[in-house]
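Onboarding guide, step 5: your first structure request.
Type a short instruction followed by the sequence, for example:

Predict the 3D structure of this protein.
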Amino acid sequence: MLAWLITELWGAEIIAVHGSNLRPAELGGFIAERSHRVVGLLTYQLTGGTLEIVTINAIDRRAGIGTMLIEAVVSKARRFGCAEIRLTTTNDNVDALRFYMRRGFRLAELRPGALDRARQLKPEMPAVGDYGIPLHDEIDLTRSL
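The system replies with structure tokens like these:
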């Protein structure tokens, strides 16, 4: 079921990020439900003292689901003894940038052309994203704990 949900939300079971492919359905995570219906999903991986959010989706937007998922992963990261949470988004995702920065995340790294290279691993990735913005770059954000 989780692999199906990832495919529905992301277009494939595999996510291309940091020059590698990940399978979010095989990672740790949280599912948000309301009235026995899935309304959100967050997956993560641990790398050293960092918890990396791999995917986050609030199916019902602007309903507090994304915030709940972030709060849950912050608690989990603290229990793991992590020093920070990291995530990656794309240069077109201006709504997500606003969302993350309002929740304590800060810009950490820009990888120009990362999506152009990722398309060689995952050709089905679109060339144009939100608001008609050409997809080229990855942006990392971090939140210290």
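Each response can be followed by summary notes, for example: The mean pLDDT is 92.
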